[in-house]
Design a protein that fits this description.
By secondary structure, the chain is an all-alpha fold. The protein has one domain. It contains 5 helices and no strands. The protein has helices spanning 5-20, 29-42, 52-80, 84-95, 102-105. The radius of gyration is 37 Å and the shape is elongated. The N and C termini lie far apart (88 Å). The mean pLDDT is 79.
């Protein structure tokens, strides 16, 4: 159902007029005082039983910066190490796995 622009503006004007014609209700100060004292007597709203998964988001976002920094530190540390020797040891083991031993890797 398509609504034309004219119908939409006419409906908008009708709603504005209806809102403007609404009855103004006068409230006494005694009533306002009673309502406010009742609200104060109610106190804070009791917390409902909270789901533990709701706290998971908070924990994740609190630990995210620390995890990012730790990843950066470990990445720089790993890049500063020489990993060529480990690659060569793995290549020797893959070429001849039967004769390979820990003693051969250290030339003993």
């Amino acid at each position: 159902m398509k609504v034309s622009r004219e119908n939409l503006t006419r409906l908008e004007k009708i709603l504005i007029e209806a809102y403007g014609r609404k009855k103004k209700v006068k409230v006494s100060e005694v009533w306002q005082t009673k309502v406010m004292s009742h609200i104060q007597r109610l106190g804070p709203v009791k917390k409902a039983k909270q789901n533990n998964l709701l706290f998971f988001d908070q924990v994740v976002w609190r630990l995210a910066p620390a995890a990012s920094i730790l990843i950066l530190i470990l990445a720089t540390f790993m890049l500063s190490l020489d990993f060529v020797s480990e690659y060569e040891m793995a290549k020797i083991f893959m070429d001849d796995p039967i004769e390979f031993s820990l003693f051969q890797s250290f030339l003993i």
